[in-house]
Structure formats: C-alpha cells, structure tokens
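Sample 1 of the test manifest.
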Amino acid sequence: MTNALSIKNLSKTYDTGLTALNGVDLDIRRGEILALLGPNGAGKTTLISIVCGLVNPSTGTVAVEGHDIIQDYRKARALIGLVPQELHTETFETVWDTVSYSRGLFGKKPAPQLVEQILKDLSLFEKKDSKIMALSGGMKRRVMIAKALAHEPRILFLDEPTAGVDVELRKDMWRLVKRLRDTGVTIILTTHYIEEAEEIADRVGVINRGRLLLVEDKAELMRKLGQKQLVLELQKPLEQLPEALSDYALELSDGGTRITYHYDTQATRTGIASLLAALAGAGVTVKDLDTEQRSLEDIFVSLVVEESQ
Amino acid sequence: MNFEAVKSIYLFEMARMKRTLLQSVISPVLSTSLYFVVFGAAIGSRIETVEGVPYGAFIVPGLMMLTLLQNSISNASFGIYFPKFIGTIYEVLSAPISFLEIVLGYVGAAATKSMILGLIILATAHLFVPIEIKHPFWMLFFLVLTAITFSLFGFIIGIWADNFEKLQLIPLLIITPLVFLGGSFYSIHMLPEFWQKVTLANPVLYLISGFRWSFYETADVGIELSIAMILIFLALCLSIIWWIFRTGYKLKT
Ligand SMILES: Nc1ncnc2c1ncn2[C@@H]1O[C@H](COP(=O)(O)OP(=O)(O)OP(=O)(O)O)[C@@H](O)[C@H]1O
Ligand SMILES: [Mg+2]
C-alpha cells in the first residue's frame, strides 16, 4: 500500500531569499497521527501549504496516496482536508452554507445528513443558521474544522489546532481526531508543545530551520525518555574508576569528583542498589546524589542546539 | 471538469450578491431615472433627435453599457478580492479545481448579475421612452460578451489589487471617463472633427456604437469594427487570465 504522504527532497525558498524548507524527506503512513514539532518559523506551515497547493515548492516532490500534487493535483487534493493556522472564515454566510459550500468546492454532491453529523460532532449544530461573524473565536475554529471535514478527506492537516483554544474544545478536538483515525483518516498536526505531541501522536517529527531533524515512533521517544541518569558527587576526586566498578558503564567527570550512571526506569532492575554497594566496597564515599530524567524537551532542545551549531 | 465546484462557487457568489440585491438594483434604477430627468427632459427638449432617434431613446444603449461595464468590473473584482482579503481564498486554492473552473464560477456569477442589471435598466428606460430593438440577436451578443469580458477584466483587477484603493482606482479613473467620453450621451458626429479623431482612440466607443446599432441601426463606427473590438478585448483578458494561471501571480508564493 502506498504511503498516505511521500515527501522527497522538498525545499522552499521564498522570493525574499529565505529558505523555509531545506531538503525534507518524510513518509507518512496511512492511518497514523503524526505530530510535527518545531519552534516559530521552523517551516511547518510552509510544508503543509506546499502539500495543499497553496505554495509552490522550489524543489522536490510530494505524492498523496501515490498522486503527485502537481501533475495529478485533482486526485491528490481531493484526498486532503486542511485546517489552517490562521482563522479565515466567511463573514455573512451561515455556518450551514459555508460548510456545504466547502463540500461542493471539492466536487462532492450535497449531503445534508453528513453535514449535519459533522456539525453535531463539533457541537455546532445549534449554530447552523447563525452568521459566522456572530460566532466566538473558538466556534469559528470549529467551523474551519467542519469545513475541512465536509468532503470526507482521507488525510487531515491541522496546523496548530490548539492555539487559542480552551480546554473543552481541546478535549473535543482530540476525541474527534482519535475517532477520525479509527476510521482510517491520516492526521498530520503541528504544535509547539511537546505534551501535545505526546498526548495524541503515533509518531513525532521534529523540524527546525527548515530541516527535519528526527522522525520517530512516540513509543521509541518515550523509551528514550525512560532513560534516567544518576549523578554522584564524590567526597574525594578519583584518578580513575576502580576495577570493581568496570561492569557498570560509568562516566567520570569534573576532575574525578563526579560519576554519571545511565539507567532505564522501565527495566526490572535498575542496578542502583548494587552500584552503591560496589562503590562502598571500593571505598568511594559519596557526598551527594541526584537523578535526572531526559525529557522530550531535552531531546528537542539538544537537537535544536546541535543543529544550530 | 469539476462542475460541482463551478456550480458551488457560482451559487455562493450569487447568494452573496442576492444579499445586496436591493441596493444593487435601486441604485442603477434611480440613476437611470435621473439621467432621463436631466438629459432626457432638460437637454432632450432642445435636441429632440440624434441621427433620427429621439434623444431619450438614443441614450438608452449608452446607459446600459455604463451600468454593464461598471457592474461587471466591480462585481468580479470584489468577488475575488474579498476572499483574498479575508483569507478564505486558501480553500479555493486547495480544492481539486483548475484555475479555469475558479474563473468560470466567479466571472460567471459577476457577468450574470450585471446582465440582469442591464436588463433592469432597459425595463426602467422603457417606462420613460419607447424603445425598439432592431437586431435582438446582436443586442444580446453585445450584452453577453461585454458582461463576460469586463467581468474577466474585473477578475484580473481583483487579483492584482492588494488594497481597496487599487480596487477602486481603475474603474474610477479609467472606465467611467472612457464610458462618458465614448458617446454614451451623444453621437461623435456632434463633436468638432479633431475631437472625433481623438474619440476614435477610445475603445469603449466601439462597444457603445455597436450596441446602439443593434437597437437603432445608427452607429459611429462600422458594426464589424465594434464586433472586432469586443472580441479583441475578450482575447486580451483571456490571455492575461491564462498568464495568471501559468504563473500563480499574486495567488501563490
Ligand atoms: N509568504 C512568505 N514570504 C516570505 N517568507 C515567508 C512566507 N511565509 C513564511 N515565510 C518565512 O518562512 C519561514 C517558515 O515559516 P512557517 O510559517 O512555515 O513557519 P512555522 O513553522 O509554521 O512557524 P509558526 O510555528 O510560527 O507557525 C519563516 O521564517 C517565515 O518568516
Ligand atoms: Mg505555522
């Protein structure tokens, strides 16, 4: 089965000379939720805009379920629903009309029942005859989601869906996203927040300055997150590690006053107790100890820092 | 061809225009009536006939052209400028439709509305003066082609404009003067010879002349020239649209 999305060597340099995307390769599997994580200006929106046909790529190709987005744009675009980052809504039209219009625009015959269901799912049905300008910001965002879903897309892009959204809507949104995923819809969302990626995604991609730094299963990332380190401050500096401790992968630093030990919190035995016993046996006195968890944040920050060096 | 999409854009635009129907109908009806009071009654009582046509009836085709040109341009330019302005254009650009289909939807709706207004003017005028249409086919030919051509032109302006001033600029500074100086209210034979020559450089003259010919068989220039002129305009606008389509001018970065 072809991938939902296959991006090859995608770059974009805007007329201003700014390179917003730089050789991105990314395959997105059908039915997965992928979170694109990156700071402001990383190129997330640019990436999405190219796939959806709003921005012309400078180099590279994108195929949507095997259909090239330029040669075969009709088939490619018909599969995609887009909820952009900015709130762009009509003003004088009613909720019902604007959502029905979106469906027609994508070439689908009217389907009042489906539109009704979508509006109900998004708690918008009572507002169906309201003019959009009379809605609150959060409701307008719901309208934009409804518009994106009106043509039953197979792939849904949510560009920063939780910006300016309250807890309630956020919960609704995640419920909807999971339900859509259960029906086989592929979902790509962007976010600045690691917790968000952690909460919802199957895979996480980290992007910075137009480069995709990493794409990994969330479980794998979580495993890396499960790694902790134990830092031992020593009473007296050591020239070198005692023979008796050679079984443990230890690092000696800070002029021999610090020992660092990595361990896995998910392992049945962390080895901390035996390490401490072995240290005592070797006559090493510990002054202080500390444990640290590597967070996704750390991984992210170190990736970003590494990249900018 | 994605007919469903063309239909959606067309109906969406027609619905938008329907919301402002009253003001868009009242204003041309009112101004037409005023023209008749001022030009028809005051001046017409002195001029009586132009080229054998009563003055009141003589100005009807010009009045229709004036409304047709102004409305085609403003409807179409606003129709595409507004989604650009509020950002909803993203949806049209991300839909599985070609640029041609986008143009068909927007321009079709704008042209429809201005043709309706043109016919309303005709009906209003009919209340004031007796009107005969000697060549109904050619009358419709000019009506339809002018509406389409200038809606295309308006569409181009709407794409080009990045603020409201630019949107108003061309209709105000170019089209309105060209229509007024293009023989809407007079025959160019009433002008001194020098100004007759100058007026021949005004493309709108050819449209008004041809249109008037379809009513009364009186024309400032040959009917063939008028037909050629409208077709040249149409071809010109279509080429610009085609170029926009090729380059994504002002629509895609
Ligand atoms: N139309 C444009 N013309 C010129 N530069 C642009 C344009 N759009 C975006 N950029 C630049 O490209 C870079 C990437 O922007 P993009 O919007 O893709 O980032 P992002 O990851 O979505 O950021 P954010 O998290 O703030 O939404 C930025 O430096 C931005 O200034
Ligand atoms: Mg963005």
